[in-house]
Amino acid sequence: MSEKKLKYVGTRPIRHDGVDKVLGKANFGADLNLPGMLHGKILRSPHAHAKIISINTAKAEALDGVLAVITGDDFPPPPSGKGSVEGPQDFGDMARNVMAREKALYTGHAIAAVAATTTRIAEIALKAIEVEYEVLEPVMTLERALAPDAPILHEEMRAKGEEPLPEGPTNVATRTVMGFGDVDEGFSSADVVVEREFTTETVHQGYIEPHAVVARSISDGRAEVYCCTQGQFMVRKYCSKVLDMDPTQIKVTASEIGGGFGGKTVVYAEPVSIVLARKSGRPVKIVMSREEVFIATGPTSGSHIRVKIGVKNDGTITAADATLNYEAGAFKGSPVMAGMMTIFSPYRMDHVRIEGFDVVVNKPKVAAYRAPGAPMAAFATEGVMDELASQLGMDPVDLRLVNAVKEGDTAAYGPKFKVHGFIDTLQAVKNHPHYKAPLGPNQGRGIACGFWFNAGMQSSANVILNEDGNATVVTGNPDIGGSRTSMALMAAEELGIPVDKIRPVVADTESVGYSDLTGGSRVTFATGMAVVEAAKDVVRQLRERAAQTWDVSVDDVEWRDGHAVAMNGHADDHEPLSVAALAGSAAKTGGPISGRASLNARGPGPGFATHICDVEVDKETGRVSVLRYTAVQDVGRAIHPSYVEGQMQGGAVQGIGWALNEAYMYDEKGKLQNPSFLDYRMPVASDMPMIDTVIVEVPNPTHPYGVRGVGETPIVPPLPAVAHAVNQATGVRFRSLPISPPRVLAALDD
Q1: Which of 106, 190, 146, 221 lies closest to 671 in space, CA to CA?
Q2: 10 Å Cβ neighbour count for 62?
Q3: Are 438 and 463 in a shared domain?
Q4: Which of 205, 247, 339, 730 is deepest in the core (most CB within 10 A)?
Q5: From CA 716, how far away is CA 609, in angstroms rounded?
Q6: Does residue 11 form part of some domain?
Q7: Rounded CA gap, 654 and 422, in Å?
Q8: What is the CATH number of the domain that holds 616?
């Protein structure tokens, strides 16, 4: 990593896309309109679990203004067998989620779709479609899904993974076990053992912008797609799998995105829009309503977790054991593995066992939500750690300091930790004025830790030098949290030109090399690494052009502060050449100058955070008010500190909402009762204090500027931190979320 004093990295310029967004000029998913465009609408199942006996679309097709009606029969058969599964994605399940085939598996499951000249006609057409169902008992909870007499969602599904496994048809998709040592031996040497069970409900990411897509079918069979997404290459790949098309037949342009948090890392309306466009011969636009977003896109899992931890009287952990049950929704693929990887990772232990179950239920197929799987796991582990600290009479920070993982320690999921700042975050909390501030009546304080392993993956970048010496940075990752400016800052540092002389661009799938999606806290690390490499390529060429201009060896040219400088006895003969001068003469020295890089980034570096939360509980109403909140996190190096602070604050607020109020509420038939922001209670600004942030910088040695992912980790500690604060305020330990006013009152009454 560079030892030089940094000029641009670590500063706080305004974001390049900020003015357009403030003025309403930025183009989001629903903003594109094409000539001759039709409006698409999707018919959704009113039942949580039902066989589809028949679908009659004749009346809808006969309506004036309806140009296309489609069902599952208009799609290729869902992929199966070898090649149908890639990483965590099963493309056969994805195809059935995009459009139901034999069964409707949740209320809101897509059954058919129409394209019409107006949205009103499309809505009338949906009502004209006749569907005959055989309604089945819905499976809405983990308890019911795992019962011996539970209705089975997928008769063909057999549990996979570690034995013992259920026999025959089952709602258990996988059973996974990991760990090392001998937990029985570890528990036998413990002085104190605490074992508890914890539950969390289904919650949604709550992004502001609903899903929106415009698709156009071109005469040669190609399709063009414009949509709000966390990854245009992801949309291309997934649509090609669902529709049995070559990826090169699909061009995807990502719009600006009004939030995603993991919820826009899959496809829903995109393949439907392509099929409607192909059938109608016209562009088709689909914009989900808020209700559709809630009932038909992926929330995160509800969970049931059992955690058992043993400690010595000095606080040293002797053994830990956990069982995690996560809802996958209607199709397999919950984040239970990520929950298993993170549940004990902040703490050093010699004996650990972790068991995880991926379980299907009649709810929407889950999607990622910011550190998917980790917040629920931390809620359980940190809850037990807090209770252990109480029983031992130890300060909760001290208990964690005794057990905190250090460089060289082995994580429960296998790898050895490299350098990180977890202990630094704990020390920062212990020394922070917040931790020592007095509390009043009915007030409580909680602390909790969180971990996320972060991701690298594949990224590409181009850096194009313009003739005036300014530069364009082209990447393939939608900007969710300010990544355009972060890319520009790193390019500015390498090139030595002001950041406002750099234009960062998010390109379509035909204008830049392949990049994995924006998620997993990977973009500033991995795509930033590609930008740095592409900028270095430009600097190499600039040195070559200067050497050619001066008729010296390239080894006699150094790049310094945005200038080519002659070295090795040539300095007195040649004045330094600026980027602008070299770019202006590029036509005479070989032509345009541009750099590019494509890589599979390794070593993203772990993310650790420790949070402090103060609450006050109104014992007459049960309302919990957050009075003060401080988030401390090791960020590696803050490329743009304001955006890092924003990630920390945003994650904390989302976690607080998850802890206190957010939950999907279903009736006995599996219908969601609160599919709107009026009834799904997310925190708003008036609910929150200012979230204080403390940035700890322990640079990640695998990145040129020390970056480690930031965006996932902040949502992990709030669930337990809030619960611990409420416990201190009330004397009641809450092991089920949300800690809503009715639950608080009931607990106080008990």
Answers
A1: 106
A2: 11
A3: no
A4: 339
A5: 8
A6: no
A7: 22
A8: 3.30.365.10
Query: Do 214 and 94 share a domain, yes or no?
Result: yes
- Of 356, 376, 286, 335, the closest CA to residue 98 belongs to 286
pLDDT digits (tens, 9 = 90+) for 711-745: 999 999 999 999 999 999 999 999 999 999 999 99
What values do phi and psi take at 720, rounded to 5?
-70, -35
Domain that holds residue 231: 32-136+208-259+264-296
**E strands within 4-74?**
38-44, 50-56, 66-71
> Where are any strands of DSSP class E within 45-171?
50-56, 66-71, 85-86, 89-90, 103-104, 110-116, 130-135, 160-161
Contact between 629 and 656 (Cβ < 8 Å):
yes
In angstroms, the CA 635 to CA 429 distance is 15
Query: Hey, is 671 helix, strand or coil?
Result: coil
Q: pLDDT, tens digit, for every residue of 114-162?
A: 999 999 999 999 999 999 999 999 999 999 999 999 999 999 999 999 9
* 577 alpha-carbon distance from chain centroid: 44
CA angle 413, 416, 417 (to 5 degrees): 105
Measure the CA–CA gap between 411 and 97, rounded to whole angstroms: 35
